[in-house]
Design brief:
Elements: E1 7-11, E2 17-22, E3 27-31, E4 35-38, E5 42-48, H1 58-70, E6 76-82, E7 88-93, E8 98-104, E9 111-114, E10 119-123, E11 127-132, H2 136-141, E12 147-152, E13 156-162, E14 165-170, E15 175-178, E16 183-187, E17 191-196, H3 200-205, E18 211-216, E19 219-224, H4 228-237, H5 255-260
Antiparallel strand pairs: 1-2, 2-7, 3-6, 3-10, 4-7, 5-6, 8-13, 9-12, 9-16, 10-13, 11-12, 14-19, 15-18, 16-19, 17-18
Length: 265
């Protein structure tokens, strides 16, 4: 294997964290700010790019960092290397309620396509790049734009998605229709396209938007029940800035409770 071989455990239910166990000189890479805790023998280092073998040299590092900007990520990534003897552990936390998805890229054909901001951490040697959508319809209306993240290599990688995550195995020619924001990841052989919702009433009043994603097998896909954008929209809709009003949630005080805690002033 080119990537470091790491062991892991996932803890929690809706707000999960993943504990990575490293042998001496093994390294895991992660998004900046994702670390929850680490043992004293692990050294943290901030780098340009992903630290893979295709990321050596100043020009390649700058190019790699530029690609990450296109996907909306930070210019920097962080490496965690075990410098002591025996084994040591470092833990990474999910950024919002959902599930952590472990992916063994050696079993996925060595390549995965995922939505922007889904990547959490991976064994050193996994290359994190960008995948351009070839179809204009996917780029304009696919919810993820022209650019998605691409993971390549033969090591372990970990994604994070909102809500509950469902994995579907598609047979050759099998089609799955998915809300454009609910797609988390797919193997590289899955064909991804966008089409208009059927029927004027469905498009205008169905509440699912004008477009829907079509995924055609063969391949594996991962679907999330609560995209971060949908969660953020619901929270904002109930915030005071958006004109939302707090409900009594069954309290007999109702509006009196609002007066007591100052919400009406």
């Amino acid at each position: 294997m080119n990537a470091h071989e790491i062991d892991y455990r996932i803890f929690g239910d809706d707000l999960q964290c993943v504990e990575i166990e490293l042998d001496t000189q093994e390294t895991v890479i992660a998004e900046a700010g994702g670390m929850m805790m680490m043992e004293n023998s692990i050294e943290m280092n901030t780098i340009f790019g992903d630290g893979s073998k295709n990321d050596s040299g100043i020009v390649n590092k700058l190019f790699s960092a530029g690609k990450r900007v296109l996907t909306g990520e930070s210019l920097f990534m962080t490496t965690f290397t075990h410098l002591g003897m025996g084994k040591a552990k470092v833990t990474f936390a999910a950024p919002y309620p959902g599930k952590i998805i472990p992916l063994d890229l050696s079993l996925m054909g060595g390549r995965m396509i995922c939505q922007k901001e889904a990547f959490l951490c991976a064994a050193k040697g996994v290359e994190i790049g960008i995948a351009f959508q070839k179809r204009l319809g996917v780029g304009f209306f696919g919810g993820e734009g022209f650019i998605m993240q691409k993971l390549e290599g033969d090591g372990m990688a970990f994604l994070h998605a909102g809500g509950t995550v469902v994995r579907k195995s598609l047979q050759a020619g099998e089609v799955l229709n998915v809300d454009t924001g609910c797609l988390v990841a797919m193997t590289a052989n899955v064909d991804y396209n966008i089409r208009l919702q059927k029927g004027i009433k469905n498009s205008l009043f169905g509440g699912e938007g004008l477009f829907i994603a079509t995924l055609t097998g063969p391949g594996e896909v991962w679907i999330q029940s609560m995209p971060l954008s949908r969660l953020a929209d619901r929270i904002y809709a109930h915030s005071p800035k958006a004109g939302g009003k707090r409900k009594g949630e069954g309290s007999i005080l109702g509006g009196i409770g609002d007066l007591l805690d100052g919400d009406r002033f």
